[in-house]
Amino acid sequence: MSARQLDKxxxxxxxxxxxxxxxxxxxxxxxxxxxxxxxxxxxxxVEPIKRDLQLSDAQIGLLSGFAFALAYxxxxxxxxxxxxxxxxxxxxxxxLAVWSAMTVLTGRTAGFLTMxxxxxxxxxxEAGGLPATHALVADYFGPERRGTALSxxxxxxxxxxxxxxxxxxxxxxxxxxxTAFLLGGIVGLALAIVLWSTVxxxxxxxxxxxxxxxxRASLTSTVRTLWGRRSYLHLCVGLAICAVGAYxxxxxxxxFLMRSYHLSTAQVGGYYSAAVGPATxxxxxxxxxxxxxxxxxxxxxxxxxxxxxxxxxxxxxxLFLLVHHLPLALSMVVVTTVLGSLWIGPAYAxxxxxxxxxxxxxxxxxxxxxxxxxxxxxxxxxTGLLSDALAARFGDQSLALSLxxxxxxxxxxxxxxxxxxxxxxxxxxxxxxxxLPQ
Length: 438
Prior knowledge:
- By secondary structure, the protein is an all-alpha fold.
- Helices cover 84% and strands 0% of the residues.
- The protein has one domain (17-430): MFS general substrate transporter like domains (Growth Hormone, Chain: A).
- The protein has 20 helices and no strands.
- The relative contact order is 0.16.
């Protein structure tokens, strides 16, 4: 089906009751929850998986980081191109079904290789998840509400990650780590049916002839044009650098708490989710609201939010890793979570504003590819690799030292956010109507 034919079949959400747009946002929020639950479940189950399958920290780092990020990045852009051209709802439904089925298979693995393949399968499916989700949200909600709406998606993702930590730990103690993967996959398959059956393809805005040409442009032309918007380039590079520390810390913090404070998976799941869960939900939503409020006054507001929060997060994270006092450490988790989650709504909304209507999913996929292949790909793996190297000398403290080194990398990303402020206003205006060379 061509893009022109697809446009004729889409109902205009502006002509529908506003309640339907919020219903769509609710369904997409559930998809985001399932996405982050399936992706992050492995982080609370490191110790039982490592024990049962006899894996090293470096292998765990590959499973939770590089293997996932590589498959996610390879498939992200092609799937997003399909979503932009042939229908975001249908592609998202199929992607959800794929990653849910592969989550079920993750619970059936018997060794490192089979789990590596299963995790790659989850990543292949999830490659079509967030880009299409963000594009749908941007289609249903205008710029004045987009930051808030995308922050809702971020909140649901954070809820899914917290549920993976708390629920995964409890399920592991109850029925083992394999059951945690099985239940997550079954829920996702049911949600795919709901999404396919009840969410329509929207019309985000009138699409002029230039924007239709943009939709049909080659991938090379698309990348060249997006990369030519300097604020988009700096946003991608800056967040990729910051994500090395952020993903490394997120993937290994539960294990750090177990080793440093001698806690069980259920204890860490309870303590950590209680500290991180509410703080993350409030912070992500607040970031979206703050973005929409500040954007009325300054176009560079999203970049200011990113620069300030990541700049302050580094010393707060180091304090969390080095205090050696559980109540204080958990208190610092709340601080670092609030600071480290404000960026989500502003960054996602800025990507959509810089891309324009015809390239929403593709721009989101390129952004996520860069962030994930650098941040998710290197963060957990480098943390595990450095921890292994330091273990002979520092024992259980090797992971804390490794996390401290990786976390400081986030400071370098702030430089790119400041540089992006120079061109962001012009780039946002360009994104609405610039043609792409064929």
